[in-house]
Design goal:
By secondary structure, the protein is of the alpha+beta class. The chain has one helix at residues 69-85; strands spanning 2-11, 14-25, 46-56, 59-62. It has a four-stranded antiparallel sheet with strand order 1-2-3-4. Strand 1 and strand 2 (14-25) form a beta hairpin.
Length: 110
């Protein structure tokens, strides 16, 4: 899920307003139900920063600066937190199949 967060950093005694676009893929717990052949290990979540923009001249433009490791860690945490607080709505149309027939071979027995 792609999210945007507002983030503030200080450089040369100036506070910069940044808008960080990131992508977060939530993790999945282990599946230990059913037959052991169907078990699966847990998958960790992934979060990445895609774009960092700075607010200048009443608009956001690509920022050429770099975040410190602490700033980057905090930004990644905020991206993950926002993505998990506001999950996307499920698309129920993807689960529906108009052509599904639970008895595809019923005409064989008629």
């Amino acid at each position: 899920m792609t999210v945007k967060i507002d983030f503030y950093v200080e450089r040369n005694d100036d506070e910069l307003e940044l808008q960080i676009t990131g992508n977060h893929t939530p993790g999945r717990p282990a599946n230990l139900r059913g037959h052991p052949d169907n078990w699966s290990p847990p998958e960790g979540s992934e979060t990445e920063i895609i774009l960092v923009e700075v607010y200048r001249n009443k608009k956001f433009e690509k920022w050429e600066g770099e975040l410190t490791s602490d700033e980057e860690k905090l930004a990644l945490e905020k991206i993950a937190e926002q993505a998990e607080e506001n999950p996307p709505e499920p698309d129920h149309d993807l689960d529906f199949d108009d052509n599904y027939d639970p008895y595809p071979d019923r005409d064989i027995y008629d």
